[in-house]
Amino acid sequence: MRKSTHLIGEIIIFFSIIIFITSLYFLIKNYMYYRKTNNSMEELKEDVIQENTEDETSLTTTTIDWKKLKAINEDIIGWIKINNTNIDYPILHSSDDLYYLKHNYMKEYNSNGSIFTINGLPFEDRETIIHGHNMRNNIMFSELSKYLQEDFFYSNNTFEIYTPKCNYKATIFSAYSIDINTEENNIKSLNFEQEIEYYINKSKYHISNVENIEKIVKLSTCSYIKARKRPTEQRCYILANIEPI
What we know:
Layout: H1 2-48, E1 49-53, E2 60-64, H2 66-72, E3 76-81, E4 88-92, E5 115-117, E6 127-131, H3 150-155, E7 158-162, E8 167-179, H4 180-187, H5 192-202, E9 216-222, E10 234-244
């Protein structure tokens, strides 16, 4: 009996060590992905983005070297920047819809993925959906969940999207968390105007003067407000009207 108990104890210890080593391996691996993503993104921004401040108006204008970006990867079709968050990334688009779910802007495998869209005509379609992971390391679209906080929603309701053809000011009018299947069923039979009304009514918070909307972006990431397991079917959606700057 003692031998049997001792053997069971050794087996438990053995598998505990295996689990610990495996967990440590994935933690280190994910950290290395994070470091690589963060470092390469900072280098990219330094290389292709120039911020200019006008002395008379104190307004800052952003200039992006699209020629350099396209030389790096033709799939880079835009750039999104949201102040008071770390969201400051290129937007990718591929004929393989989910390619950038697990690849960075240099087409290297990376579990952090990229910010991407699967729209056929991004920013020309009336609604462009932009996807990004909600990572534990707080990069990509992780900080979109800030918009589910009332103070942040009202004090940070604009952001910028830059493209080779046109730059846009995006004004947020809706933010909420919902199951992705419920969302798809709710909007599948709606036309554009009905969708706008749905998004306004669904929002956790509301703003006035939401009218004459011609084009929108829908930012999408996983939500862990009600779900704790990964992956989750819950999504955080941020809706914004976009207008040329």
